[in-house]
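One-letter codes give the sequence; backbone shape is given numerically. An example follows:

. . .
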Amino acid sequence: MARNVKNRVLFHSRRLSIYLVHYSEGHQIAPHLDMVSEGRLYKLNVVLVKPRAGGEFLCERSILNVLGRVIVFRPDLYRHEVSRIRSGNRWLLSFALTHYR
């Protein structure tokens, strides 16, 4: 299923990473946590293109969710997933911020 995802790194540093991600029809992301070796991980996901069917983001708890398009959450604390894309594509701009104590 990896062939259905194209992940382009736009920027990467110790604290901030920015990705442009394309998910093709048929792809899904199983429930998971994003592990970090230290600090707290925050993500801001902006859905640029929603698929025609499926591809819904589900999270145990989000900090902010605006119409399923702009989502801020803690991927290191709360399980999250994306349902199978039944029709169309999903384009995502993802900002990952690691906060060190």
User: Anything to note?
Assistant: Residues 12 and 18 are 6 Å apart (CA to CA).
